[in-house]
Write a structure and sequence with these properties.
Elements lengths: L1 E2 L9 E4 L8 H19 L3 H10 L5 H7 L4 H11 L13 H5 L5 E6 L2 H11 L7 E5 L6 H10 L7 E5 L2 H11 L3 E4 L15 E3 L2 H12 L7
Parallel strand pairs: 2-3, 2-5, 3-4, 5-6, 6-7
Antiparallel strand pairs: 1-7
The protein binds magnesium ion (MG).
The site of magnesium ion (MG) has 7 residues, from loops.
């Protein structure tokens, strides 16, 4: 684990991403979803789009891919509709997610995606009971405002919270912009995106974070 500056003892609110942070969306759902979207465009005769989608799989997020392909509104809506059609039954929590979920520290789940699909995932994973707050940001929005709103609702200053996520260009960059400390979770076979900012800490397992925060949850102190 590499650490720059998380003051573990100050953390009293966790803002946690879901996909590829708590659950392995990439290896279970995404591969099928991307292929389904690509082949659906192919069936409409839009082969360049299909090629563009396939070539970016595993390199860019779905939203960024749609943006880079400069799709029309109709094409974008079509892509998202096809993407969201997939059943979520194959989605599993990473084994190390339990340690974090069970921590007695207030938590907000902050997920981005099509709200109905994200709610289906939350229900399937059975994780709602671990969160004091659940916020779903629409597919084409950023998490910035939602993070501000969560801090306000929990009467927390930016330095009181810790953002935990897998995407440098999204929640990690948001955290840096808003002065909220960030923990990047690196998952096997999953690229966190362009290294636009440095997370305050990088871990391979949520257990590492849970271990640091357990004394805080008990009202004790900890240090790196
Ligand atoms: Mg994610």
């Amino acid at each position: 684990m590499r650490a720059r500056g998380v003051e573990w003892k100050s953390v009293r609110l966790l803002i946690v991403d879901m996909d590829n942070t708590l659950c392995d969306t990439f290896h279970t759902l995404s591969a099928r979803q991307w292929e389904l979207v690509a082949s659906s465009f192919e069936k409409r005769g839009e082969k360049d789009i299909a090629r563009g989608i396939r070539s970016r799989f595993g390199r860019e997020s779905f939203v960024k891919t749609l943006r880079e392909l400069h799709l029309t509104d109709e094409q974008r809506r079509f892509a998202v509709r096809v993407y969201d059609r997939n059943p979520v039954g194959s989605l599993r929590l990473f084994p190390d997610a339990h340690a974090l979920l069970e921590l007695a520290v207030p938590k907000a789940l902050l997920s981005r995606g099509e709200p109905a699909l994200q709610r289906r995932k939350i229900r399937h994973l059975g994780i709602a009971r671990h969160f004091d707050d659940i916020v779903i940001v629409d597919t084409f929005r950023t998490k910035t405002q939602a993070i501000k709103d969560i801090l306000k609702r929990h009467e927390a200053r930016p330095g009181d919270a810790l953002i935990i996520g897998d995407r440098i260009e999204e929640e990690i960059a948001d955290g840096r912009r808003l002065g909220v400390p960030t923990a990047l979770v690196r998952r096997r076979g999953w690229k966190p995106g362009k290294h636009v900012v440095e997370p305050d800490v990088t871990v391979r397992s949520l257990e590492t974070i849970a271990k640091r925060l357990r004394p805080v949850a008990r009202g004790g102190r900890t240090s790196l």
